[in-house]
Write a structure and sequence with these properties.
Helix content is 67%, strand content 1%. It has 21 helices and 2 strands.
Length: 618
């Protein structure tokens, strides 16, 4: 393309659109190609398209979703970009894994009673219900030069690291401080103080983890192109799966033997590893992925008004949730009533099956023998969770190749045309793997049915091998839970935000207020956290009537709790069937369609999913 043609094109372009600051890697716009309705390539950049198609495919951005002059976040991103974007979730998952898998034994070792343990672990769902919506609102209104989400990711990660280290060394910290005043470390008062401070750090840890999680999820939504939200959340679920497996493998090893310089106990070493993982992955994400400059969005609303205003804004935001997002939240509410007991009691369910034959054979074991038996049962249950994590990761890696793209793809005709000029042998093979009827929404629905069937089966399965298989199969459902809801919400919110920025650039005024990604994802997390509180209360009631004393044969109370969770998941499956298989552009953007058929072609291009790696380019 000649220099003269470029100058003329820019001149004509100024009549309709303001010039957009672009990165140095971008090509110049060619407005003369904007109305040409030819197929646009979004496949692997390793292939060289014809020059004419190159100008048309790479030179135009789409009239509605691409008219934002402040960013170039609508380009199709590579697999490496997606890894860097989502890798911080892997570090965060290690922190979660350390708390969930080792927190209870550690607090019991400090002297906390089992009856008070429930009050400690309700901190997770409580903080999820309150913190993430609040952090979402704050980050939506943030106008820092570092971006909307980065300050909360960094601050939350720092607070998480401090809390983990303080919790791991709480004996030494509290004992040392009180020892300066002459208190005996072995006295009852010092032990009680240690327990109180440890519980305080658990609450701080949960609030900090929810802060960084709210920032990371909104960060992914903001920085991934609207046509790659499904792919971005698929990569996020893979990263979480890797973090899970690393956490379980680390739990198996005798870490103080190999990493004595990190601490003299397993919990201390795990906390240090989690801190290093979280800190390094968050810094890698925020230093390599650039957010949009929020200062270009204008001034934000004031966040003053206290707690009452916060709750009022939350309920207002719930009422005006986008339609797909509202349906996803309804599904999540019932799904997590079933998932919460499964996450907490799966290893105990396996352990109970393991100990039953021994208890029936010798019902008069000494307390020491019972403790040794249940210690072995815990390791057996942990192995089942490792199988569960491997199944989940395998599903997250392989399933995207079989899913028919709905939230990341255009019509079938468009997809076929765009593949003609650029398909390779590998692309054609990957295309053949796609099951046309298996959309992401349908896969999510099937995963609920699989979960419910496995939970009902816990009532009749009484062998270690079969029970481990059940828990492993549930890993399929867990993989979809980490992927599908976030992909559906992100696709809808991302496209709506692109339209909002487009209208703002064209000086449209008097528009109805819309919530941004932070508060919407926070409300979604409320639909996950709130049912966990209900599940905790319901489980406690069932255990009150069905549980037998420890060491007594015939206890099947955990199986009943899991089966009740399966009933709730069937309701979630029904609600999933009401979700649409595609995200529609809001009606406010319909007026933009008058710009011509060429614009419609470009909007469809925004939904193309590359076949290279589950929606990603290399």
């Amino acid at each position: 393309m000649g220099e003269t043609e470029n100058s003329d094109s820019r001149g004509r372009d100024l009549e309709d659109v303001k010039p957009s600051p672009r990165l140095s890697c971008q090509t110049s716009r060619n407005p003369s190609a904007e109305r040409v309705s030819k197929p646009v390539h979004e496949e692997s950049p390793l292939l060289s398209p014809s020059s004419q198609e190159d100008e048309e495919g790479l030179g135009d951005e789409g009239a509605i979703l691409e008219s934002d002059p402040h960013d170039d976040y609508h380009e199709t991103k590579s697999v490496w970009y997606m890894i860097l974007l989502t890798i911080s979730l892997g570090g965060l998952q290690l922190a979660w894994a350390v708390e969930l898998s080792n927190g209870t034994p550690y607090l019991l070792a400090l002297g906390l009673s089992k009856s008070l343990m429930a009050l400690v672990w309700i901190a997770g769902p409580l903080s999820g219900t309150l913190v993430q919506p609040y952090v979402g609102m704050l980050s939506d209104n943030c106008r820092s030069r570092w971006g909307k989400r980065t300050p909360f990711m960094v601050t939350g990660a720092a607070a998480t690291i401090i809390s983990l280290v303080a919790l791991a060394w709480v004996r030494e910290i509290v004992g040392g401080i009180l020892g300066l005043f002459g208190a005996d470390r072995e006295s009852h008062g010092v032990k009680v103080t240690i327990i109180v401070i440890a519980v305080l750090f658990v609450y701080i840890l949960d609030f900090a983890i929810n802060t960084v999680q709210a920032g990371i999820r909104a960060f992914i939504l903001d920085c991934a192109p609207s046509h790659q939200q499904e792919a971005a959340n698929s990569m996020a679920s893979r990263v979480v799966g890797v973090g899970n497996i690393i956490g379980y493998v680390a739990g198996y090893l005798d870490l103080p033997k190999f990493m004595w310089f990190f601490g003299n106990t397993q919990f201390k070493v795990l906390c240090v590893i989690a801190c290093l993982a979280l800190g390094s992955t968050v810094m890698l994400s925020v230093t390599t992925i650039r957010e949009r400059d929020p200062r270009l969005e204008g001034s934000a609303g004031k966040g003053k008004g206290g707690v009452l205003k916060f709750f009022k804004e939350v309920f207002t935001s719930i009422r005006r949730l986008p339609p797909q997002t509202r349906k996803v939240c309804e599904v999540q509410f019932f799904a997590w009533i079933g998932f919460f007991p499964q996450l907490f009691y799966s290893s105990s369910y396996i352990g109970d099956i393991y100990v039953q034959p021994f208890l029936e054979e010798n019902p008069h074991m000494t307390p020491a023998e019972i403790d040794k038996l249940y210690e072995k049962a815990t390791r057996v249950g942990t192995f089942a969770l490792l199988v569960y994590a491997i199944t989940s990761l395998t599903t997250n890696v392989l399933l995207p190749f079989f899913i028919a793209p709905s939230y990341d793809a255009p019509s079938a005709a468009k997809s076929v045309r765009s593949h003609k000029s650029y398909s390779t042998r590998i692309d054609r093979f990957l295309d053949h793997l796609v099951i046309p009827w298996l959309t992401l929404r349908r896969a999510w629905l099937l995963s609920h049915c699989i979960f419910a069937a496995c939970m009902f089966s816990t009532l009749i399965v009484r062998s270690i091998g079969a029970a481990t298989t059940l828990i492993g199969i549930v890993g399929i459902s867990w993989a979809l839970t980490l992927w599908a809801p976030f992909a559906i919400i992100s696709a809808e919110v991302s496209k709506r935000d692109a339209l909002r920025r487009s209208r703002a650039n064209e000086s449209h005024s008097n528009e109805a207020p819309e919530d941004q990604a932070g508060v919407i994802l926070g409300i979604h997390n409320m639909s996950i956290a709130a049912p966990q509180i209900l599940a905790t209360i319901g489980s406690s009631i069932l255990f009150k009537f069905l549980q037998k004393p420890r060491g007594t044969p015939g206890d099947r109370s955990i199986a009943v709790v899991l089966a009740c969770g399966g009933i709730s998941t069937l309701v979630a499956a029904f609600l999933t069937s009401r979700i649409k298989d595609e995200v529609e552009i809001p009606e406010e953007g319909a007026v933009e369609e008058a710009r011509g058929e060429g614009d419609r072609e470009e909007r469809e291009r925004m939904l193309v999913r590359s076949g290279s790696f589950g929606g990603l380019e290399y």
